[in-house]
Design a protein that fits this description.
heterodimer; A: alpha+beta; 2 helices; B: alpha+beta; seven-stranded mixed β-sheet; five-stranded mixed β-sheet; 31% helix
């Protein structure tokens, strides 16, 4: 049987072409974005690493920000340079001051050194290493940037858009239920194995 | 004697009660400045010239200005500390012999004391206490404990002036220990101890060997006609330090010629202190400029390195400028026809990331604000190469053109301001020297100050590159941009 291939009609072709043209055209200069990125969930008591990433930057020379976090669910263990600014030359980074009581990392900053052009494009500015508190209540923990200042190589301020991030921490009951379910599945698998071989797992050398 | 109320007994509470009286006097100064009398202009100038030095504000500025501040009570109070016997209610103000330099010991009380200087072959003492009994009871035993003997005698006593609380024991020291007594000629008349005189009419600074110890003496009439100030070089933790002994500290309460002489003497002392690079003080009236507090620190925690009596050259010079303004204030009060320009102490401070091989910048300022449109000269110490620049509206002069290259950690740059004189102000010369650096120390300093605001303890003005009153990453970046590309700081 011949299979008939229906070709898209002219309107569809034109609309598709228009869409392609729009996507391929040089975009109007977009506001650079500083965002907190990383996993969307973590188990209580587990370690977590989030990143402060930048995109759409041109000539970044120096930055400074605070990081706000949910102190009821997370502790910040350390902050480290993400290395993006260092792609433009030697830099001077400071991990800021961590306060696990108020939930703020203050005054994280970095600057290039020397009369050099700034870094352009995007990358990771800083890495945030955290621990999810073991006994914390389940829910969504927010991470956001505050008091952000960004400068180009002329030391003029650069406007940036900020994007926050949320990390889900499961409820303890849901977590235990999940563990129980996993345990049951494991036990069931062991019984099937025992029936098929006629031997108990302990007798299998 | 009137003692201000105190919570505890002892000299500490009495001495620190000075602070309350100083505060009251300064409050008067602030409000009086608005009246703009010549007296108040100079009192205000004295305060401005103190700079950010609460210790100088509490002591030197308060006492040099006690008369124009109408605050003579702080001097009257101090006389109650003049214990000469070691007994009685004010015996608590005696100070045990205390080593203040490698070769100098203080003996006396919180009102007035003497300095015992060890030389290669004997002692030289500055001043001679209140009376014979005091030197016999305190000074002589101290000298014996320090090694007084026939082979190591008290060779001479230099008297700052002829008042009884300074020469009271001179006769005993001469008679019993054979010491030569040296006194300004204008105070020598009628002295039973027949001093060796130095000519008070010759107002030049000159070297003089006293008991084999080199002194630079400077007749400074005013407190008395024969007051003589001196500079001696002593040793502090193995390093030579030049210290000032002020010839006479308080002004006449009512004699215009005496106060005019005092003012002239302070101005010449300023010149001497600068010329000899004086860094420390040994003043007989130790309450005047805070040396009493320094002695209490030594007794409590030991002599620091450098000694607590090393105030630093800038501080000693600044103290003389404060004293000059206080003198001008009092003379203006006594003689309304006196119109004197204000002396302004100026300061040069290397700015962030300077000096560097490619950039030198200093900020010139004083207690009135930045020095604008003034010439600063940078000079490389080794080659003598110079570069001049004008200060901008923020008082910053920058030489951006390299006349190096210079080597970080090795080459030294001097920045100098020649000063200026006008009818209203005399802007005093200033200088600063620094070793060419790579900027990392400034970055480290900025890291420590980040987030601080003007007025806060962590805030450092010279690191605030954009002058917005807060140290932030823009200031860090401003420092960093002037460093060599590729520099790595730990």
């Amino acid at each position: 049987m011949n299979k008939t291939i229906r070709l898209p009609g002219l309107p569809a072709i034109l609309s598709t072409a228009a869409l392609c043209a729009m996507l391929s055209a040089t975009p109007a200069s977009a506001t650079p974005i500083l965002a907190i990125t990383g996993p969307g969930s973590v188990q209580p008591g587990a370690a977590l690493q989030l990143s402060v990433t930048a995109s759409g930057l041109a000539d970044l020379y120096a930055y400074q920000f605070d990081i706000l976090f949910d102190v009821t669910r997370f502790n910040v263990d350390s902050v480290a340079s993400g290395g993006f600014l260092g792609t433009a030359g030697s830099s001077f980074f400071d991990a800021g001051l961590v306060d696990n009581t108020t939930g703020v990392v203050t005054l994280v900053f970095e600057s290039l050194i020397g009369p050099v052009p700034g870094a352009s494009g995007g990358g990771t500015l800083a890495l945030l290493n955290l621990s999810a508190l073991p006994g914390a209540a389940g829910g969504s923990a927010g991470f956001s940037l505050a008091n952000v200042t960004v400068y180009d190589a002329a030391l003029d301020p650069v406007n940036v858009a900020l994007q926050a991030h949320a990390v889900a921490v499961p409820e303890p009951s849901a977590w235990l239920l999940a563990l129980a379910g996993l345990a049951a599945l494991g036990a069931q698998a062991a019984r099937r194995s025992q029936r098929s071989t006629g031997r108990s797992p302990a007798s299998m050398a | 004697m009137q003692h201000p109320s105190r919570r505890t007994t002892g000299p500490v509470a009495s001495l620190t009660s000075i602070a309350a009286l100083v505060g009251a006097a300064l409050a008067v100064a602030v409000t009086s400045a608005a009246a703009q009398s010549r007296t108040d202009i100079h009192r205000d100038a004295a305060t401005r010239n103190v700079g950010n030095d609460p210790f100088m504000l509490q002591y030197a500025r308060a006492f040099y200005c006690n008369l124009p501040d109408n605050n003579n009570q702080i001097v009257i109070n101090s006389r109650g500390w003049n214990n000469t016997t070691g007994t009685g209610a004010n015996a608590i103000y005696r100070i045990a012999p205390t080593q203040i330099f490698d070769d100098v010991w203080f003996v006396g009380n919180h009102y007035v004391g003497q300095y015992m200087i060890k030389t290669a072959d004997g002692f030289v003492q500055a001043d001679a206490a209140n009376n014979a009994n005091e030197v016999a009871t305190f000074n002589h035993p101290a000298l014996v404990q320090l090694g007084l003997s026939d082979a190591y005698p008290l060779k001479a006593v230099f008297l700052t002036h002829g008042h009884g609380d300074h020469d009271g024991g001179a006769a005993w020291l001469k008679t019993n220990l054979g010491a030569q007594i040296v006194l300004g000629s204008a105070d020598a008349a009628g002295k039973s101890y027949a001093p060796t005189t130095l000519d008070s009419a010759d107002l030049s600074m000159r070297p003089m060997s006293i008991g084999g110890k080199n002194f630079w003496v400077l007749p400074t009439p005013g407190h008395t006609p024969g007051s003589t100030s001196a500079v001696v070089e002593v040793m502090d933790h193995g390093k030579p330090v030049r210290v000032l002994m002020n010839g006479g500290q308080s002004m006449s309460s009512n004699s215009i010629p005496a106060v005019a002489s005092y003012l002239d003497s302070i101005e010449r002392t300023y010149v001497m202190v600068k010329a000899l690079n004086v860094e420390g003080v040994m003043t007989p009236h130790i309450y005047w400029d805070g040396e009493g507090e320094k002695l209490r620190q030594i007794l409590a925690t030991g002599r620091s390195n450098p000694s607590q009596h090393v105030y630093g050259h800038d501080s000693v010079v600044r103290q003389m400028v404060v004293a000059r303004e206080c003198s001008a204030a009092w003379l203006s009060r006594l003689d309304a026809t006196t119109v004197l320009p204000v002396w302004r102490y100026n300061r040069l401070e290397f700015q962030h990331a300077s000096p560097l091989p490619s950039r030198m910048a200093v900020k010139a300022s004083n207690g009135w604000g930045p020095l604008v449109n003034q010439t600063v000269t940078f000079q490389h110490a080794d080659s003598g190469a110079t570069c001049t620049a004008q200060t901008n509206a923020a008082g910053v002069a920058t030489c951006a053109s390299p006349f190096g290259p210079f080597r970080p950690g090795i080459d030294r740059i001097t920045a100098s301001y020649a000063g200026a004189a006008g009818s209203e102000f005399v802007d005093l010369p200033a200088m600063v020297a620094g070793t060419v650096g790579n900027g990392c120390s400034d970055l480290a300093a900025a890291r420590s100050a980040i987030g601080s605001r003007s007025g806060q303890a962590r805030y450092v003005d010279r690191l605030d590159a954009d002058g917005n009153g807060v140290i932030d990453v823009r200031d860090v970046a401003s420092i960093a941009r002037n460093m060599a590309a590729g520099t790595r700081c730990s």
